[in-house]
């Protein structure tokens, strides 16, 4: 039997080669594993980017759908989520601009539109949004050519174009033009609740209660959660002495995240029904809300609140119940929030007299009576104004009477209607500057408006006198 002999050097060589193979194999496996890990990491990054971009897109889509039925609180929430998923999505800022335009927050509108442009948004889309903002702000009559072009070329959402121009014509009291747009809007978008709501508000203003009520009901038939229609219908029913039915429609608005406005109105309904404890309970809930949240709840249903509605209603309730000290406490809060509100001043004057401050209460009652006499003069002037004709001087008189004796909101409406017909009215700009200066004492945001109208009045006066305007 032969035994194969291997030299020591051969053994060493074999062992070394074997060792090298064992070393190279784990190194090769390690490199492969690193490549796989890098690939998976890149894949996860791409999936993550797709995931966040997709969810940002979906959130924007949801926001746009909410805006089409005036669910402003839900639209705002969806846009917040869109920014969470992708904070540099230009479309998110365009939709935020549209939301803020609808809420009348034009400073935020301009800021959002600027962000849209900075992130590479389409300049044509930005221009369309600017036109819609100008139209809804009261410049619709001057933008008729743009309206025809946008509807003909289907630039942007035609329903949004109709909405902006219809509201703009109403701001300028161009009712005939507004009715034409609203009718076309209804025919082109038969499932849209907004044209019915818009027409309802016009008929409400013109005191055509039956037509207004029917329009609100038609809007709710198309979208039962159209909160502005539900609130407006509830308010109309309350004003026409149907508080029990009004509660049903105000209650729909309780589904909103910010529902303080609905609670105040429900409290008014219970008060009219004589259910004092129920009224007090719901009004106290509204009173305990932060004032900014309470005011926002009105804006979200397209109402413009004045002062502190919860404090006034709670004060009036306590006054009617004979709780004079409690009444005066709340009415003082309401008065500080809106000292030009004659209803607040009257109720507070009664509370002062019944709390022992007879002289102060009587003096305030006399001042209120004087103001109401002045406003009766304003009402007579209004009765003689044809809504489709300028009557600039008469509008100016009404605006000044309300500025000095009544609601600043009503004064603002009439003074702006002057500018819709005569943009160069120096007196209108002067009075608006005074109005916004008063408002700025409670909200500094109005300082810009006050400054704008003051400078405009100076510039127009200088042109008239051929001198240099003062700053």
From TrEMBL:
TPR-type repeats, residues: 260-293, 308-341
Keyword Membrane (UniProt): yes
Residues passing through the membrane, by range: 39-58
Protein keywords: Membrane, Repeat, TPR repeat, Transmembrane, Transmembrane helix
This protein's record includes keyword Membrane: yes
Pfam families assigned to the protein according to its UniProt record, in alphabetical order: TPR_16
Chain residue ranges for the region called Disordered: 1-23
Superkingdom of the organism of origin: Bacteria
InterPro entries: TPR-like_helical_dom_sf, TPR_rpt, Ycf3
PANTHER family: TETRATRICOPEPTIDE REPEAT PROTEIN 6, UDP-N-ACETYLGLUCOSAMINE--PEPTIDE N-ACETYLGLUCOSAMINYLTRANSFERASE SPINDLY-RELATED
Protein name: Tetratricopeptide repeat protein
Record organism: Thalassoglobus polymorphus
């Amino acid at each position: 039997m032969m035994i194969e002999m291997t030299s020591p050097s051969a053994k060493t060589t074999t062992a070394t080669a074997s060792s090298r193979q064992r070393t190279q194999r784990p190194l090769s496996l390690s490199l492969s594993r690193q490549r796989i890990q890098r690939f998976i990491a890149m894949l996860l990054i791409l999936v993550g980017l797709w995931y966040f971009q997709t969810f940002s897109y979906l959130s924007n889509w949801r926001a746009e759908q909410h805006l089409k039925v005036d669910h402003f609180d839900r639209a705002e929430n969806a846009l917040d989520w869109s920014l969470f998923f992708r904070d540099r999505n230009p479309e998110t800022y365009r939709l935020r601009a549209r939301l803020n335009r609808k809420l009348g927050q034009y400073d935020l509108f301009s800021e959002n539109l600027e962000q849209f442009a900075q992130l590479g948004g389409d300049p044509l889309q930005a221009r369309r949004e600017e036109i819609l903002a100008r139209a809804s702000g009261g410049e619709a009559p001057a933008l008729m050519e743009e309206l025809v072009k946008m509807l003909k070329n289907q630039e942007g959402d035609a329903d949004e174009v109709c909405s902006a121009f219809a509201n703009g014509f109403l701001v300028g009291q161009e009712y005939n033009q507004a009715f034409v747009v609203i009718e076309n809007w209804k025919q082109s978008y038969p499932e849209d609740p907004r044209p019915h709501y818009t027409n309802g508000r016009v008929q409400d203003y013109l005191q055509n209660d039956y037509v207004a009520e029917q329009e609100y009901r038609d809007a709710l038939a198309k979208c039962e959660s159209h909160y502005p229609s539900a609130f407006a219908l509830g308010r109309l029913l309350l004003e026409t002495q149907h508080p029990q039915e009004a509660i049903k429609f105000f209650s729909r608005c309780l589904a909103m995240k910010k529902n303080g406005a609905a609670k105040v109105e429900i409290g008014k309904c219970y008060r009219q029904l004589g259910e004092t404890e129920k009224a007090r309970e719901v009004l106290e809930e509204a009173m305990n809300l932060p004032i900014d949240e309470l005011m926002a709840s009105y804006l979200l249903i397209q109402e413009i609140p004045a002062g502190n509605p919860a404090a006034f209603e709670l004060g009036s309730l306590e006054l009617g119940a004979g709780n004079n000290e409690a009444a005066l406490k709340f009415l003082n809060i309401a008065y500080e929030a809106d000292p030009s509100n004659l209803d607040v001043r009257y109720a507070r004057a009664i509370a002062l007299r019944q709390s022992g401050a007879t002289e102060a209460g009587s003096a305030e009652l006399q001042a209120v009576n004087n103001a109401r006499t002045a406003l009766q003069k304003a009402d007579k002037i209004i009765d003689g104004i044809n809504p489709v004709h300028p009557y600039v001087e008469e509008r100016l008189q009404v605006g000044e009477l309300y500025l000095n004796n009544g609601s600043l909101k009503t004064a603002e409406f009439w003074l702006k209607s002057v500018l819709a017909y005569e943009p160069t009215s120096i007196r209108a700009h002067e009075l608006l500057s005074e109005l916004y200066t008063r408002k700025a004492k409670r909200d500094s945001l109005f300082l810009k408006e006050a400054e704008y109208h003051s400078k405009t009045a100076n510039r127009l006066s200088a042109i008239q006198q051929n001198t240099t305007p003062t700053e």
